[in-house]
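Wed. Picked up where I left off yesterday with MarR family transcriptional regulator. The coffee machine is broken again, so keeping this brief.
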Amino acid sequence: MYLPTLAQLALGSRLKSLSDHFYAAVDEVYRTCGAGVESRWFPVLRFLWENGETTVSDVAQAIGQTHSAVSQLADKLVDAGLVCRNKDAQDGRRSLLGLTDKGRADLSALGPIWVAVRRGIVKSLGEQELETLLTALSATEAAVQERPVVDAMLAEYAALTTAALEVVPYEAALKEHFYRLNAQWLERHFRIEEIDRQMLGDPERHVLAPGGAIFFARLAGEVIGTCALLCESPGVYELSKMGVDETFRGMGAGRVLLAAAIAEFHRRGGRELFLESNSRLKTALRMYQQAGFVLQPSVWAGSHYERADVYMIYQPDHRQAAKAGAARG
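Structure written out below (tokens, as returned):
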């Protein structure tokens, strides 16, 4: 299933899916057993059954729904003849919700169905699993009351948007991000070739051991980009495996990583730095050109990839000379 792969981002969607599933199941039971109620009506009807007449605000607070949602549901229950609105004898400006005679009669016949629902859920989910779920729900409800989710999310957003990008070297704990970030753009634009699979699956063996380096761009602890410097032969390096999380584009991660790889190339005293790419990746190619890579007339003779139709060599002096010539012209 797709939603579980999104973890926290799909929490609301997964809970809604489960909620819809249980609502539909109970509605089917109600219909089969001849009950004239709907599952979504249950919290309001049960609360009025147990507490008698009360206000919309009291019901909303008790069942954790908005005043508007409860008011709209109350209108449906009034139309169904199950609930009535009565003027408050102590405060004529407000109305009270209460069960009608029909509502009490209908609810009084639901005992066997409600028992069947409880027992059926236990059998379907398992007693221990259900207990775990109910405990987790209670803990979640308490947590969001104590620490509002919106406040927490906006605080994290503020931290992310004011944090500085940092470049860090490879460590084993970051290995999964090397695969994730590269697989993301490869699967979107091309396909993962066998050489990709080997390198991404075991970067220590195929990148680091032969003398290469791997860098990661990190923003407030979130890994959002990566690139590799491959040692092709003594003094010759390839810039490769540049990948930036597509939801963090425009934040400069690619340029920061590129600068780090070029700096490492110079630190090592390299004599040649090249890269392979594809002509469809216009934005990346412009970034490489601006950094001093020069497009070559043909693909690299020892090309590693089926997708490669662009070969560029790092020649910053060539770029500076071209700019000077253009200025004189």
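Quick read: The domain at 3-149 is CATH 1.10.10.10 (Arc Repressor Mutant, subunit A).
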